[in-house]
Structure formats: structure tokens, C-alpha cells
Amino acid sequence: MEHNWFFPPHDGIRLGDLAEALGAELADAAHADRVVRSVSPVARAKEGDICYILSRKMRAELETSEATAILCDPALASLVPAHIAVLLSRRPHTAFAMAGELLHPSAMRPEAMTSSAGISPGAFIDPKARLEPNVTVEPMAVVGKGAEIGEGTHIGPGAVIGAGVRIGRNCTIAAGVTVQCALIGNNVILHPGARIGQDGFGYAPGLKPGMIKIVQVGRVIIQDNVEIGANTTVDRGTMDDTVIGEGTKIDNQVQVGHNVRIGRHCGIVSGVGIAGSTRIGDGVMIGGASGINGHITIGDGAQIAAMSGVASDVPPGERYGGIPARPMRDFLRDVAEMAMRASAREKKKGHKDE
């Protein structure tokens, strides 16, 4: 893939300077003046690109790579051809992410759709809203009565900021986002189409067939440095608050139910559904398409495998998987046992057919 105009290459960073910025070591000091301009996968890297490797499985791709530099663990440095500069790091994946931020800063959060800064004439700002200096509001955005928006925050086109909402400084609220009944910290990113603070799903049995709506009068609180993906929904609390802890990253198309409390620095992958009043600790990782039952607790540092169904509490630090989710060793044992039984049935069937 050729470089495109959406994310053009950097003017160039010397490898010596890049190594210092990443806390990496340049294996050969003679390569310090080589320049990198972009990131790339190993297989199609060209001059000016930097890549990374994590295992010996990349050996064949390295042999034909035209990359300027490779980030890798010292144990893998011998795999890299002599014409490619090597930056040594014990955490090459992390170092590569840092390099990407330096080379492509515009890709770190949604950019403005229009070139004008400040408040667009095509936006509607209620007279009783309060905006600090250097706030950008793009066309067709709406900022409601009593809303407050901090300095350096960008509100994308078509976004709707509800009455009384508080948004901190240096946030990015992308195109088509809606925010209501929410308090949002600093440096928060909400990707296009995210829905924050709408009704949670709550009903009581009616006196006649049907259901009666339970009022949802809580809030959403999003702490600093949270990132929430496109078309993800975070329901406001019923009477308590829904809380997303500092530094947590939530992927696209995730459902966070009312009264859920998610701790700090969690990672939640696309397609996850979290039912109401669940408590999730700090540093929890939840794989894609998992379903989390309501009114349960997932302890600090727990990991949930993709496509799991979590029906009961998960202790801190445990790795769970499967439906219903259970300790990973039990899940893998069950999978192996089912595979053995299936194989035995096939063999038995084959003997009968002979």
C-alpha cells in the first residue's frame, strides 16, 4: 500500500533521536543518521519505514523487507538482515506504538472535518452554555443550556451536547456523538457515533400484560484519559451513576448498561455487552463479543477470553473463558475432552460403515 494523503509520511526523524525518545538502544551507532518517516508491517515495508517483530515467525518476511529499521527484543536481533537498522527494546510493541504517535500524530484522535477553528456560524450554542477559550465547535453541532466545555476541547460536526453536561479540557468529541446527563474529565476521546448518557434499560411488570418504564435519573461519569469507540453506548444510571475509570479504553460497538462501574486502565474489546450494575475492577481485560451478566463483580486484573459468557463473579487476577465462563485451565480441559469425544464418535462411525 502506498502512502496516502489521509496520513502522509512525517518529514523524518533520525534513528538516533527516535531511539532516545523510545528508550531503545540503536544496535549499530553508525545507523544513527538514517531517517524514518512512517510505520509499516514488515512484509511490505519500504525505505523510510519502521517495523517491529515479536517472534521468530517473521524470519521469512524479514528476508525480503526493505524497511529502514526494525524494533525488536535483543534476543531476536540476529534475525534482522544486515541492511536494516535495529532498535533494541525489551518492549518492542510498546516502543512501536510510541514511534507511531511521533510519526503520525494526526492519527491519534479524530481530526476536525472542517478547516476553520473556533465556533462555527453553523453551530448552535445555547446562550447559557459556558465555553472556555480555544474551544472548537464544528457546523451542525448543538451545545445545550448550562453545558460547560473546557479549553482545547473539540466538538465535531453534528455532535449534540446536552443541557448541563460538563466536558473537561483537551477532549475530542467526534462527529455525530451525543452526550447527555454526563460529567466528562480531561483528555477524553469519544469516537463518531458514541452515545453517552441515554436511558438505561429498566422496566417493571405492569398491572396488565406489558411493562412499566423505570425512570433513569442517574448520570454517567467518565474520568480522565478515557477513550470510547465508535457507536459504543454508555447508559446513565438508574439512580446511581455509571462510571468509566481513568485511562480505560473501550472499543467500537460496546454496550455498557446502567449503574455499571468500570475501574481504571481497563481494556474492553468490540462487541462486549455489560449488563447493569456490574462492578469491574482496575486493569481488567475483556475480549471481543463477551457477555457480562448484571450485578456481578470482576476483580482487579482479571482477563476474560473473547466470546465468553460471564454469569458469576470472577476473582481478581484470574483468567476465565467459555460459556459459562470458568477458569481458563478448566475451559481448555473441557474443550480438549469434547474434541476427544467427537474424534472417538467419528472413529466408531467409520468402523460401522466398513
TrEMBL record:
Keyword Hydrolase found: no
Pathway given in the UniProt record: Bacterial outer membrane biogenesis; LPS lipid A biosynthesis
Active site: H258 (proton acceptor)
A Gene Ontology molecular function term of the record: N-acyltransferase activity
GO terms (BP aspect): lipid A biosynthetic process
GO terms for cellular component: membrane
Reactions performed catalytically: a UDP-3-O-[(3R)-3-hydroxyacyl]-alpha-D-glucosamine + a (3R)-hydroxyacyl-[ACP] = a UDP-2-N,3-O-bis[(3R)-3-hydroxyacyl]-alpha-D-glucosamine + holo-[ACP] + H(+)
EC number: 2.3.1.191
Keywords from the named record: Acyltransferase, Lipid A biosynthesis, Lipid biosynthesis, Lipid metabolism, Repeat, Transferase
Annotated UDP-3-O-[3-hydroxymyristoyl] glucosamine N-acyltransferase non-repeat region domain residues: 33-101
Domain of life of the source: Bacteria
Gene3D superfamilies to which the protein is assigned, alphabetical: Hexapeptide repeat proteins (2.160.10.10), MurE/MurF, N-terminal domain (3.40.1390.10)
Subunit structure, interactors included: Homotrimer.
Function field: Catalyzes the N-acylation of UDP-3-O-acylglucosamine using 3-hydroxyacyl-ACP as the acyl donor. Is involved in the biosynthesis of lipid A, a phosphorylated glycolipid that anchors the lipopolysaccharide to the outer membrane of the cell.
NCBIfam families for the chain: lipid_A_lpxD, PRK00892.1
PANTHER family: UDP-3-O-ACYLGLUCOSAMINE N-ACYLTRANSFERASE, UDP-3-O-ACYLGLUCOSAMINE N-ACYLTRANSFERASE 1, MITOCHONDRIAL-RELATED
Entry's family note: Belongs to the transferase hexapeptide repeat family. LpxD subfamily.
Designated name of the protein: UDP-3-O-acylglucosamine N-acyltransferase
Gene expressing this chain: lpxD
